[in-house]
Amino acid sequence: MHIDHTPHPYESLTPDSVLDAVESLDYLSDARILTLNSYENRVYQIGIEESVPLIAKFYRPARWSPEQIREEHQFTQSLADADIPVVPPIKTADETLHNHGGFDFAVFPRRGGHAPELDNLDNLYILGRTLGRIHLVGQAQPFKYRPTLDSFSFGQQSRQFLIEGDWLPEDCRYEYQRLTEEILTLVDAAFKRVNRLKNIRLHGDCHPGNILWRDNTPHFVDFDDCRMGPAVQDLWMMLSGDNSQQTLQINEIIEGYEEFLPFNRAELQLVEPLRALRIMHYAAWLARRWQDPAFPTHFPWFNTSTYWLGHMMELRELKQSIQRPPLQVGAY
């Protein structure tokens, strides 16, 4: 495996440069800076003199184009304009995307909250209602610059990156190639079986860490991965447990969802295929980001023999789960 020792761009993003960037928008910082839990981008809480702190997000260089980032901002603002609980960036001088020291960045108001309790069916119903409202806005028009979640971008490209980059240990290389080829064949077949499959604008990464729960309301944050895709992508990450538990959960979510928007039941065939694509994409994401100094520090277990043995076991289980009957609405 080739190791690139070229300094990573984020190494030049020092605390002073972060404060300078925020102050370039005419804020006066009190020099307090707190690094928040984010790996894809760099996110900081910045203290502001005689005011509440701000959140500053510095986008990973060369990941999104300015047009794609602005689409993210426009989407979240359209949701906020519809009184949906999201956190859009602050507009300064009629612009939400700024550049300082070579980094694109945006500032956001700070919002508190905690992750939702997903074992509470009432919470799932509320989450479903909110997602129905988000998707009602999301289906109104497509993204022009943002990509689509599909088998090629999340599956095939991830697979090729790991194979061609020589990340795989020799003792699992053949099985990885065989298993992932079989999984992607099953994924493609599942997508083809879905009648009236429609791609809409999505949050794209609806795990509990991107939902702040307060005052019995879920506030959706971090639309960095928003893209076009099937509606079920924003639902399935809230499911956990065995088949009977997931059936109860998806029924609550869809009941709330359909207060605002019909849900295409055929998309439930995509729950396990989408899970498989996410897991394949995650392994390649770690490999793609390995030259970022934050990744070896925070993911020291990656690219070890233990990791790849576990990943291979996960792929075998995914292949089996994709072939099981999908969850059923109304089946308790």
The string of secondary-structure elements, in order, is HEEEHEEHHHEEEEHHHH
Strand element count? 9
Average predicted local confidence, pLDDT = 95
Name of the CATH first level of the largest domain: Mainly Alpha
Query: What would CATH call the architecture of the largest domain?
Result: Orthogonal Bundle
Which geometry do the CA atoms define? globular
- Helical proportion? 40-55%
How many structural domains? 2
Describe this structure in words.
The chain has 332 residues and is an alpha+beta fold. The chain folds into two domains: 10-109, 2-Layer Sandwich (Phosphorylase Kinase, domain 1), CATH 3.30.200.70; 121-322, Orthogonal Bundle (Transferase(Phosphotransferase), domain 1). The chain is built from nine helices and nine strands. The strands form three sheets. Strands 1-2-3-5-4 form a five-stranded antiparallel beta sheet. Helix 3 crosses helix 6. The longest helix has 24 residues, at 170-193. The chain is globular. The N and C termini lie far apart (50 Å).
